[in-house]
Each structure stands twice: as structure tokens, then as C-alpha cells.
Amino acid sequence: MKENALIITNNDLVSKILNSGKYKIIFVNGTLMDVLIKVRDYIHKGHKLLTHPLMGSVKPNETPYKTVLISEKNYEYVDIQSLMYIENSIEVSQNLIRNRQPRNWPDKVLEDFKIIDFDLINNAINN
Questions:
Q1: Separation between Cα atoms, residue 72 and residue 121, nearest integer Å
Q2: Residues 6+ apart with CB under 8 A from 92
Q3: Strand pairing class (24-27; 5-9)
Q4: Whole-structure pTM value
């Protein structure tokens, strides 16, 4: 990744593994929706999305974990494309969660979701 990035996540595995000092990590102690709202707050402050908030094939009503990369730099303007992506992602997530509430997964499945989320963001960082 060429641009310095902030990592916004509620996945403690991402936080543990990528907390080497190379990236600033903002840990959200909350839900997937809380992460998306935190990302939107940063976009309103001038940060840009570096990864799509809904990347991967795991739907927001299936997994409790979400990690998103945004620019470390906040620009003097709101990036309209980033704002459109995050607003759309919030809307899609709300609709999916409203229509089908997330399950109470066993710990082993939750660990698998953490690994999937980590793998997605790690691949994005390293490409």
C-alpha cells in the first residue's frame, strides 16, 4: 500500500497482528455497524476510503467483524466518492441486518470470521 493508512476495526485479531507501529489502528469496541459509522465520521473529517467497506463475500448480517482502511491524511474537503460508498454500505448493512438478524455463532465460528476479516484486509494492504 502506497498511502499511509488508518485501520478501523472491531476485530481484535487484526489489532493484535497489525499493531506493529506501521499502521495506526483505531479499535472500535462495538458492532460492524459501529465500525461503519466510525469510518463515516472520519470521511466527514476529510479522510478517504482505501478499501471498500463491504469487500469480501461475507454479508454484514453474517459476521460481526469489519475492518476498513482509510487514508491517514485528512484532506481539506470531503471525498464525495468515499462518502457515497460508506453511506451506501451503511444502508445495505442496515437493510440486511434488519431483514435477518445475525446469529449467535459459537466461538469457533467467530474465530473463523476473525481470520476471514484479517485475511481480507491483509491482502488489501499487501497488494
A1: 16
A2: 54, 60
A3: parallel
A4: 0.94
